[in-house]
Amino acid sequence: MGSEIRRSMPVLPISIVMQLTDLTARQIRYYEEHNLVQPHRTEGNRRMFSLNDVDVLLEIKEMLERGTNMAGIKKVFAMKKHVNTEGKKEISDRELRRIMREEMLQARSMQKTSIRQGNFTRFYK
């Protein structure tokens, strides 16, 4: 069995995910409502999370701690998903920062504000 298959297997109940991530059940359900994480549901409708889901939740938590709002987090995930659907590998944080920096510099040179600048200026201090 490949490591990616193991990482995507839904084996963790929400109680364990809460301990691993230091998030409340309410927070986890909120991120699920916003389609940032999609845990598997058992026949009894219990949420079961994979290690990949835990990684996503930790990434969300880290972005929130850095001051990114939910709209910004959704944009980051949408950009990652868009890149993945084009058949390319997942975009790295470094690559995302490079893209955002270039966009902000280009907008600045045209004396305009980047559409995303309000959400991402904290990354480019």
TrEMBL record:
Top-level taxon of the source organism: Bacteria
Annotated source species: Lysinibacillus louembei
PROSITE patterns, alphabetized: HTH_MERR_1, HTH_MERR_2
SMART domains: HTH_MERR (SM00422)
SUPFAM superfamilies tied to this protein: Putative DNA-binding domain (SSF46955)
Keyword DNA-binding found: yes
Pfam families: MerR_1 (PF13411)
Alphabetical UniProt keywords: DNA-binding, Repressor, Transcription, Transcription regulation
Taxonomy of the source species: Bacteria, Bacillati, Bacillota, Bacilli, Bacillales
Domain HTH merR-type, residue spans: 11-79
Descriptive protein name: MerR family transcriptional regulator
